[in-house]
Design brief:
325 residues, alpha+beta, Structural Genomics Hypothetical 15.5 Kd Protein In mrcA-pckA Intergenic Region, Chain A, Alpha-Beta Plaits, Pseudouridine synthase, 3 domains, ten-stranded mixed β-sheet, five-stranded mixed β-sheet, globular, S4_RNA-bd, PsdUridine_synth_RluC/D, EC 5.4.99.-
């Protein structure tokens, strides 16, 4: 067994005990391991976490475990064959991610994430957005600040400096950011603006699938909905998050009786089938805006509605009342 410092990058052949440096205080263990095990697919990192091979101060770690400075992390040996089992990402996928970069400076890189690409690898996904960007920018230090579901397109922020990562994540935890989404909801809301204040509770099914439901014992969750455009079968709505819970918009939409079009988990199967006739092939949810102020500097990032979703809107009929007028 070897004992190394936080900046070691060679997994070696034996178990390592790595002491967490001060600038890694608060970092999630999965992201910490991604930095320690360069080139190892996220799916393998989650596997060694699930099987209890990674320990923090002698205790089993979960993927969302947050580290504290001076913690000791046990990292098992990882065979080279395991590192290479998923193969290199396709060139076309790398080009697609590269063309999706909206903004970058010394602190942040902002992506207009395409639908169909996960934020990170794992759970059967070999290469997520973070892995693809690390392949494109092997000399850069990149960390996910937040996440988007695989089928959700739009603004995804990554940090290029540790201070930027921890600073923005603190703002997110304190609900001091502005996050807005566009979604197509079933039917017409009773009011042009509506807020849903309903606690959400997350559970994990036997197969590892995450499910979220409204539950009085859940975490406080607040979403503001504003109607942008009406169509005969649906409403284009802007959703502004006051909190950032897993699947928050999807579950709050379902809770008020207007689920998101194309939502196979929380939506209406008949409505989803009808929407496929207008060309909808995925969840109609797009992260359009992310704003915050950090270090005295205001930042605002926006991504235009994805082309496939715009094409759906172009095919939707206007409401009957509007046509009669």
């Amino acid at each position: 067994m070897t004992r190394t410092s936080d900046n070691s990058s060679d997994a070696g052949t034996g178990v390592r005990i790595v002491r967490v440096a001060d600038d890694r205080d608060g970092q999630r263990i999965d992201n910490f391991l991604a930095g320690q095990l360069k080139g190892v697919p996220k799916s393998l990192i989650y596997r060694i976490l699930r099987t209890g091979q990674v320990r923090v101060n002698g205790k089993r770690a979960k993927p969302d475990t947050r580290l504290v400075a001076a913690d000791e992390v046990r990292i098992p040996p990882v065979r080279v064959a395991e590192r290479e089992e998923t193969g290199a990402p396709a060139r076309g996928l790398l080009d697609k991610i590269g063309q999706s970069i909206l903004f970058e400076d010394k602190e942040f890189l902002v992506l207009n994430k395409p639908a169909g690409i996960a934020a990170h690898g794992g759970s059967g996904v070999s290469h997520g957005a973070i892995e693809l960007l690390r392949t494109l920018r092997p000399k850069d230090t990149l960390e996910l600040v937040h996440r988007l579901d695989r089928d959700t397109s739009g603004v995804l922020v990554l940090a290029r400096k540790r201070s930027a990562l921890t600073g923005l994540q603190e703002l997110i935890r304190e609900n001091r950011t502005t996050k807005q989404y566009l979604c197509l909801l079933q039917g017409h809301l009773s009011r042009a603006s509506r807020s849903v204040n309903a606690p959400l509770r997350k559970s994990v099914l036997q197969g590892g699938e995450r499910m979220v439901r409204v539950d009085e014992e859940g975490k406080p969750s607040l979403t503001h909905f504003k109607v942008i455009e009406l169509y005969e079968p649906a409403s284009l709505v802007e959703a502004t998050l006051e909190t950032g819970r897993t699947h928050q918009i999807r579950v709050h939409s379902q809770h008020m009786g207007h689920p998101i079009a194309g939502d196979d988990k929380y939506g209406d199967p008949d409505f989803n089938k009808a929407m496929r006739s207008f060309g909808l092939r995925r969840l109609f949810l797009h992260a359009k805006h992310f704003g915050f102020e950090l270090g005295g500097k205001a930042r605002s990032f926006s991504a235009p509605l994805a082309d496939d979703l715009s094409a759906v809107l172009d095919k939707l009929p206007a409401p009957r009342r509007a046509r009669q007028g």
